[in-house]
Each structure stands twice: as C-alpha cells, then as structure tokens.
C-alpha cells in the first residue's frame, strides 16, 4: 500500500549525494578549518552567576598579556554597535528588553558573555580570560518557571512589574459553550524539558574588517547567509553592501545555527579594532550555554469531547520558560506550539494562550521541530487519553476527527493546511505495524512478563517556511521568500545559485536533481552553489522550517521553464525548425520524433556566449534566469509515527524496540535523502523523549555542560527505523514539493509517551513529562503500584 | 609561556616535525600545525569521537592527548584512507548507503569502522552498533551508518 513511485527522471531517484566524496576524504572545509593570514583567535568570558549586578570590570592585566591584541567590554560595544535585532515579534506588545552583544550592568544567566578577547591563538586568549577581574553582586534568582511567576519573584527587568514577556491568545468558536456541553472533559498538565540541537560542529565565526574600504568579510557557520548579513548590518549600523557572508561546510545546524547571535558581532568589532581577522569558535562547554536552548514549556490543557469521541473544544495555556534575554527567535517556538495546538484535528472551539516568562536560564531559540513536538505531545496525548477514557480504539478516535481530503484547503486555528490524506496515512502506518508483526511481538513479550507497548503519534508539519506575507502577518519582522538563479554556461553546463544554505541535509544534491529534471540535462552537468551573499541570490529568513527543497526547488523549476523557452528558440534557429517541435532530453535539444536532428546543450551554450552570431535575431546573449519563490501560503506535511517500546518496571528505563513512520512530504525528490532526514530527526527525538535534558539546579547553575551529562543517542540507543512514503502534492509550490526536515522529529516523543502508557496499561500510568527519564517514570510506576495495593 | 618542544610524528606515512608548546593538544597539532583538518573537534572531552585517529595501530582520541605524547608515533588520519583519488572501500560504502550527512563525525566514524572490521571481518549488527557507540553522530540516526559498515566490511573482504 506504500506508494512506490518509479522515477522516470532525476526527481524521485535514489541517487547518492554529490556532496559526499570530499566529506569522506577529509577534504571538507568547516569554519575552524579556515585560517586567514594574521588571524587572531577569540575567547569569551562568561558569567558564572545566574543573576548578578556587574559592579566593576578590570581588563588591564589581560590587555598586558603578551599575545593579546584586544579585550572588549560591554561599555565599548555600546559605543560601536546597536542592540541585537529580534525578528520574531509575533506576540502583540511583547516586552523587548534592549540587549547588546555584551551587557554593561547586569547578567541574567550562567554563560552570558561579559568580556571578549582576541589573541594570537585560543590558548593565549584563554590565558587572558583568567586575568580579567570582574566584581559581581549576586542577585536573587528566578531559576524556574514557578519562581519567576511568584508574587514576590526577583524581577529580571526592573522596568516591568513582573517577569512576563508577553501573552497571545488564539480563539475560535465558543469554547466555554463547548466545555459546558461536553460529554467528557480531560485535563492535563504536560511538561516538556529543556533541550537543544547540539550540532556536532560547534558554532563559530570569522570576521575580517578592512578599515580602509570598510568591507566586512564574514565566514559564519550559519543556516542563513543573507538574513544574517542584514541583521549584522543592523547590529553594526553598517550598510549591507559592505558586508559579505560566506558559509563554509556546516557540521549540522538543527536550528541552533539559524538565529542571530552575539559572537559574530564581537568578532567583527575586534577585527575592526585590531585590523586583523578574528575567529571565535565556541568549545563544547560554551555551546551548552551560548547556543539557543529550546522546548522547555509547561502546557496546561483541557479537551472537550462527545461520548463517541468527537473533539469539540481545546483550551489551555502554554507557559514558555524563556531565558534571561531574547534570542532572535524570541518566544517564537512556544508561540507556534499554541498556534498549532489543534494539530491535524477538526476542533471547532479553541482558546489557547501562550505566555512567555523570563527566567535566569539561557535564552530560548530555534531547534528542529520549533514548538511542534511540544504541541504534538499535547494533542496526541489527549487523543489517546480520550480514547482510553471512552473505551474506544485510539486510532478510530483519530480518524473520527480528521478533516477528509475534500475538506482541504483546511482552515485550522491559525494556519490553513494545503493538502492531505490523513486517514490514508494512518492506514499506511497501521498496515506497516501489522506487517511488521508488532502486536504479536507485544503479545509474546507480555506472555514472558515483559512490559511492551505500542504508541502512535500523528503530526502536522509546517513546511516551506515561508511566504513573506504569511510571516509578516504572524509578526515576523523579515521576509521569507526563496530565490534561485539557474545559469547555463558557454559549455552547456548548468550552475544553480541558491539562497538556501546547506548544513549537511543534502540540499545540493536535491536541488541538482530538481534542476536536471526541469531542464532535461544529466545531473552530472549541474553544479549547485550556495552560502555566499556575493554570488547567491537573496533569500528571506534562513534555511529552517523545512523549506530548502520547496522554496529553493520551486524557484529552480520556474527558472528552468523560462530557460527552456530560450533554449528552444536558440535550438530552433540552429536546427531550422520551430521551437514547439523541440524536446530537451538528456542534454540534447532534438526535433520531436526525429532524434537525429539535434544539437547539444554545449552548442546552445556556445551560441549564447561565444558564437553569438548563431543566435536568432533579437536573442540576447547569455542564458540565465532568476526566480523568486514567495508562495501564497505554506505547505503542510504530515505523518503517522508508531513505536514499539519496552519498559523496565524495576528501573524505569525505556527502550525503543522498533520505529515506523508513514509520512507525506509531497513530491519525494530523493528517497534516500528523505529517509536520512527522517532517521536523524527520529534520533534527536528519541534522545529528546528519553535522554536529553538541560538541567538547572535550584541555584540557577546549569548542570549539563558535557556529553557525559547531556546524553545524546548513540548507535546502541537507536531502534531500526522504517519510513513509508506518500505523495500528496503541495498546492502552492511548483513541483508539489513539501518539506521533510522536521518530519522525524515532531511526533516521536508523543508516540513514546503513548507507548509507555500502553506498556503499563495495567497500572493506568499517564506519562506527563518529557524526557521520560528512569527516575521520572519509576516514580510514576511506584505511585501507581502503591495505589493498587 | 613555556619553551617550545619539537615533536616528530609519522602521519599517513609521511614523517613531519614541528615545534609546539608542551600544552598543545595532539588534535590542535595535527589540525593547525600540520594541516590535517580532517581531524575534527566535536567536544574536546573525549566523548564524541570526531577527533579519532589511528595511533600506533589503534584508534585514539586526539583531543585528549598532548602533541608531546605523540613524539615518534605512527598516526593515520582520515586523509590516509583513500588511495590517491580512489576512495577506500569503506568510504565508498558510506557514500552508497548515505552513511553521512554533515560529514563532521565521518572521519572518526570511518577510522573506527575500519578498525572494527579488522576485529570482526563479518560483523553482526550488534557488533557494529556496540563498536561505534563511542562515536556520536547527530545527523543520521546511525541506521545508514550501520548499513554502510556492513557493506564496507563485505567490500573489504572481497578486496583483501
């Protein structure tokens, strides 16, 4: 029942990636591999206090250390730079604390940067940090959500009466009536722990400021070249034509490299002051405090339904545990959690709020999934709890509440879903579970006294993010369009220049496939250039929100259509025939039905650039098209995840035994890359569901700053994974492409929570907190056992 | 600043000498002093395995060693796997099986995989998973790496 398409061209073909040989051979060039002549290396002194007043900063001893070129403090930053820009302003009247790359008077989380140093190398720079004297006056700490919300809470910002950053409520229908008239009402408080993307390559930057020309050359390990150039321009009050951003090979992004940070501002300022290039690359310990944290929120929710399982209303509050300042993403991910709280279901009455709360923790920002795993935990837990309460089959309850395919475009609470066949996707997943014999495995295990459960999670995924007007409508202070240039050169070879940024996801290969298919040329003839603001076309936002294939690819498809017209015109002139009689296939332009009458793309390219006399009259030399992709609306992918888990009742440990996802990302460009994206997302969310948590002590100190404390999945933690593909075309994207970058990530925690409940069904346990660590689950098991005895 | 010492190592068959401070890590020495940038630094505390090298015949974490400890050692980095422009069978297998995404863990993963196959010429899935459990990959979820190592082992058996 899985739709196995047979690829007739490059789109849909399972081809190996063009990126790989140099990565395999050790020839990649990541940020830290770049060494410019005279380059200095930076280091950043970070606050050891979660909340403190800065009384005095003395950097004189550091400045005197041989090998030190610059030491910069917050007071100096204020003279040279503007406040850090925040592009996510989606909450009306959200409080916007003004923050610069370095603070002058106060620190609000452990790890907040206070002073930066540039020296001959990192070793000397770190020596210099030890010579900096800072006098702090520790302040009372709001280390947790409850502490920050307490009546007498220490305030992080004196200008406001409390620690709330803002509140936004989404409403639809008449929610009070729905709850009054409901046959059943469920109430749950769910907690999603603090986690982060943690790319294996830490974040870094090199800045080279030529003070004679004012040209600033930046190399950033980032997911957004153009957006970060613009934000850098704002932060440095510098026109962007003086800034060039290049993105070398990026060792993983996962959202952590999407947001705008402070280190690139500091490197730029120190380069300006020293006349030398300055590199700052964080070490792993720094990455745990200086990169965006994510996910942490408490969700108090209620569901109203009829006795036969029809959902009639949802209401609740997402309490977003923000950090001590705003990242560029501000309260964005929790906001999206609240906005998509109805998930794939038809919920006529909604009243869901998001409240952002400042705490003395690291700032919240982007991480793959971006609020959607949290929302999915809510709606997929509630739907299974509803089924449990009513004694109905959980997947029948899901099915009962899906919009039918003919109800698309389906208007959900905030967004309109473009296309979908949700019930079919559920069926595909269920048939996979049946085929793989999970129920038999579960029964056999239970017969042996083992606690094995099956859980499901159906998710919707916001992809092709995003259409500029949609972004602006929801408060993003930036455009979101994509753009690609397709150029055929004098030898007939093709170069694609895209604004999208590669970070390991295989986008060069995927875009080459789209281009090869669209133009009718062999994929070997296509090169994809990305990650350079001087050669690649402008793109809004950054490569996040599962967008690169859809927006980058959609632009290529349109550009190729325009190019093909030119190719046919030139070919017709060379072959003395009519353009409409020509087909372009495998790099040749041939008369339809008479393949012997043909010219190669090389001849076309030669005519367009060198033997221009061969062009038809009126044809302008060169062969190049540029296309902006700013679609009318988003594309909504979806999927149904199933997991088979085993719980150890003695220890509370959970092991995922098997995994399966049926998903629909529209047109599949390369099944191998799609599966790779899903596998990686699943790994991160199995880590997120069971292992990963950024833990803070009562004193506000972070306790997880190494891979020994913050556990990411290793090969032995991972089950086999299977992906079944469906293809329902995107409505607003040429080629029907939706995104897949976050597909694996979103539903796994909910599915695992559901499976753990199922494994412990005799105890009537309800998992309410992610990650499901052994101590958390053991406490639930013990409590349930005590209640039963 | 301490006085510098001379360290001589043989890397991928070539003997190289350079001066460095005694505190310089072997990883920084290989990367920055000698230019073997395929040695990656993912954590600098010996957990992630991105900096894995072959040190006198066995894999080791170059981030947790000092360059001075390597004086006289024989070292292989990822650059030593390919034969000129011909990729090593394990590299080919990683390519064919999509055993990498961002490529940052890949050098360490490849060197560990080759060592694993020396130990288990026809490794089981469990042996592979156990064998690479000291190397973190944040992109792939490991499934295609496991497939690649099984495939690479077969290719290595055929070519040996």
Keywords:
heterodimer; A: 789 residues; alpha+beta; Aldehyde Oxidoreductase, domain 4; 6-stranded mixed sheet; globular; B: 160 residues; Ubiquitin-like (UB roll); 2 domains; 5-stranded mixed sheet; 5 helices; 5 strands
Report on this structure:
The complex is a heterodimer of chains A (789) and B (160). Chain A has 22 helices and 29 strands. In chain A, the strands form 7 sheets. A 7-stranded mixed sheet of chain A has the order 3-5-1-12-9-10-11, with helices on both faces. A 6-stranded mixed sheet of chain A has the order 7-15-14-13-8-29, sandwiched between helices. Chain A has a 4-stranded mixed sheet with strand order 18-26-27-28, sandwiched between helices. Chain A is globular, with a radius of gyration of 27 Å. The model of chain A has no long low-confidence stretch (mean pLDDT 97). With 160 residues, chain B is an alpha+beta fold. In chain B, strands 2-1-5-3-4 form a 5-stranded mixed sheet, with helices on both faces. Chain B is globular, with a radius of gyration of 16 Å. Chain B starts with a strand and ends with a helix. At the A-B interface, helix 1 and helix 19 of A face helix 2, helix 3, helix 4 and helix 5 of B.
